[in-house]
Specification:
Layout (H helix, E strand, L loop, with lengths): L5 H14 L4 H11 L1 H13 L4 H14 L2 H18 L2 H18 L5 H14 L3 H17 L4 H18 L2 H17 L6 H13 L3 H17 L3 H18 L5 H13 L3 H12 L7 H17 L3 H17 L6 H14 L3 H15 L5 H24 L10 H57 L2 H15 L6 H18 L9 H8 L3 H12 L3 H17 L8 H8 L4 H12 L3 H15 L1
Helix pairs in contact: 2-13, 3-4, 4-5, 4-6, 5-6, 6-7, 6-8, 7-8, 8-9, 8-10, 9-10, 9-20, 10-11, 10-12, 11-12, 12-13, 12-14, 13-14, 14-15, 14-16, 15-16, 16-17, 16-18, 17-18, 18-19, 19-21, 20-21, 21-29, 23-25, 26-27
């Protein structure tokens, strides 16, 4: 696919923005021709022939574009029923599984993975690369929306692009590029702008309202991350125009970015109006867009001092992520909750939410996955450059075979050099991000602990009497919610103040004895409060203590001594758990801390 230079792209985009207001009628016609009339036409055909599987498949994908997932399921189940009756595995059942899988993903239903798995088997058995594009797209959406695994999501999207190239399906390639840029937004990474602009350009080349919508929406998100708000606005306006013409669902997404742009520009009142408008359309919004609207609305309220009202919105958003099985934006909600409680002087609550955020984000970083994705990105970019050469952008090189060979060798050397440099740079950026995140977390946690400790001194006598009376009840009765909360608070105090996790031979029985309860109650409380077992809970404290020690550039204690100091009996166990939780080995973590300290010093 030919690619314009950055200057050419910039000129084209500016021209489109300038003439946008003068071609509204033309765009209206194009947009309507792409979705609504197409749906109406296919439904008329279906009335005449209710068992037309090609029409059912077409309707499934049209409604996927419209984001009306209930209708997708309706037609997908009918396509599945007919396919099962006819034993039509290669077409009806294949596309029924794809449609049902993607629809269930967007509705937060984990049964989606079963449909996508079946579709993958059917697609691979027939080498149907066009279908596999949609399968990998669905798996990527499942990884991001339900598992919050953005690395796996990008992996599947890039695999989908490979399948799109094999099937020469440029429309599906553009959709996948749009989803890749969406993942970059979820990671607060503006590098996704390239993919968003590619989607936008491909949409205009294919005269596809849906692709233009995706491209313009994601481009506005990327410019928002780059803080280029004036560049973001024309794109979001174009997305809104196409959305309204086609009656797309999930309209809250557009008003969320509208509000975020206005809020960033200092127009809080206008931002709140957009958030309210988006929330008023909640019956047409999928869960992730409800959550981001509630979170951004809460941030605006928090800035005006309405922390209690903000917390109500955030708890509602958090409930949605759990009830509707959608982890997207959950971390942002938890972070905003912590800040609101801190603003209200409820430092224990703020610290609790901060710790929960740390637990949920610790597993985000993974060097092996980052390396794999770097290779996929480079492979994609290299393949795109090769396509440009084949399509004539480097015609002059074909005049002389010798020059072409020399140039090819040079290109290979440059690509290898660039690949090695890029992998090193990405790893370095990743290490720096991990260290900065943990150092900021330590700073904030210590700040909150200091405030809490000063407040606790004022109530120590009361707490002691309550402890005495409560402990007597643990052995004789089941745990009420109040007792569970109190027991967990005492457990946290035991870990944070007495630091019993440093005992190398610490057991569940030992901790239960210290708390004057039993192992069953202890396990129950830990699991309900942290979703961890006893060993995982203790190890999380040990690793946090190790992070504190290794975050001090002046601390040169050997790693073996660090492992023993925080409670580990084995260096191999310490290395493995540190790598799993933090994302990098302890030695590299310490080296990065020292390097950063020297640069800042």
């Amino acid at each position: 696919m030919p690619k314009s230079s950055p200057i050419q792209i910039s000129i084209k985009l500016r021209l489109k923005i300038i003439i946008f207001s003068t071609i509204c009628i033309l765009l209206t016609c194009q947009a309507q021709e792409n979705i609504l009339p197409a749906i109406q036409q296919q439904e008329q055909i279906l009335k005449r022939n209710p068992k037309d599987v090609q029409v059912l498949k077409e309707l499934c994908f049209l409604y996927l574009h419209k984001a009306d997932y209930r209708k997708v399921i309706e037609y997908g189940e009918e396509l599945f029923r007919i396919g099962y009756e006819k034993q039509d595995y290669e077409y009806s059942l294949l596309y029924a599984h794809i449609a049902l899988g993607q629809a269930h993903v967007m509705l937060g239903d984990s049964s989606a993975i079963n449909h996508l798995g079946q579709a993958s088997l059917l697609g691979k058995s027939t080498n149907n690369y066009s279908a596999l594009c949609s399968v990998y797209n669905g798996m990527g959406l499942y990884a991001s929306n339900i598992n919050k695994d953005y690395y796996s999501a990008l992996h599947y999207f890039f695999k989908g692009i490979e399948a799109a190239h094999k099937s020469e399906n440029s429309e599906l390639e553009a959709i996948l590029l749009g989803n890749i840029s969406s993942i970059y937004f979820l990671q607060n990474n503006p590098e996704g702008l390239t993919y968003a602009l590619q989607t936008y350009e491909m949409g205009h080349k294919q005269n596809s309202a849906y692709l233009i919508f995706i491209g313009s929406l994601n481009t506005s998100y990327m410019y928002y991350l780059r803080k280029e708000y004036d560049k973001a606005l024309p794109y979001i306006k174009e997305a809104e125009f196409i959305m309204n013409q086609n009656e797309y669902y999930n309209q809250g997404n557009v008003y969320a970015i509208y509000g975020m742009i206005e809020f960033a520009k200092g127009n809080k009142k206008q931002a709140i109006e957009y958030y309210r408008k988006g929330l008023s359309l909640n019956t047409m919004n999928q869960t992730s867009y409800k959550v981001i609207l509630l979170n951004e609305y809460a941030i605006a309220l928090k800035e005006d001092g309405y922390n209690k009202q903000a917390i109500d919105l955030l708890l509602k958003a958090l409930s949605l992520t759990k009830e509707e099985n959608c982890a997207v934006y959950r971390n942002q909600v938890i972070n905003t909750l912590s800040v609101c409680y801190e603003n209200m002087g409820q430092y224990a609550e703020a610290l609790a939410w901060q710790r929960k955020l740390q637990q949920e984000t610790d597993s985000i970083f993974n060097i092996d996955k980052e390396k794999m994705l770097s290779e996929l990105r480079i492979k994609y970019d290299t393949e795109r450059q090769a396509n440009e050469i084949r399509e004539g952008k480097l015609v002059l090189l074909q005049k002389e075979k010798k020059e072409q060979a020399l140039f090819s060798v040079l290109i290979v050397i440059l690509i290898v050099t660039f690949t090695l440099w890029l992998m090193y740079r990405r790893k370095n950026i990743l290490y720096t991000s991990i260290v900065r995140q943990h150092q900021e977390s330590i700073r904030k946690e210590e700040h909150l602990k200091a405030i809490i400790n000063s407040l606790q001194q004022e109530h120590i006598n009361t707490a002691a009497s309550v402890t005495s009376s409560t402990n007597e009840k643990y052995a004789a009765s089941s745990l009420s919610n109040e007792k569970k909360t109190f027991l967990f608070q005492r457990l946290e105090k035991l870990m944070q103040e007495q630091k019993v996790y440093k005992e190398n031979l610490l057991t569940k029985e030992r901790v239960a004895d210290l708390l004057e309860t039993n192992r069953t109650y202890l396990s129950q409380v830990i699991n309900e409060q942290t979703q961890q077992n006893f060993t995982q809970y203790v190890n999380s404290y040990r690793i946090q203590e190790a992070i504190r020690l290794l975050s001090d550039p002046k601390n040169d204690i050997p790693l073996k001594a660090v492992a023993s100091e925080v409670g580990f009996n084995s260096m191999s166990t310490f290395y493995k758990i540190f790598q799993d939780i933090v994302g990098i080995p302890p030695k590299q973590y310490r080296n990065k801390v020292i390097t950063m300290h020297k640069k800042e010093g």
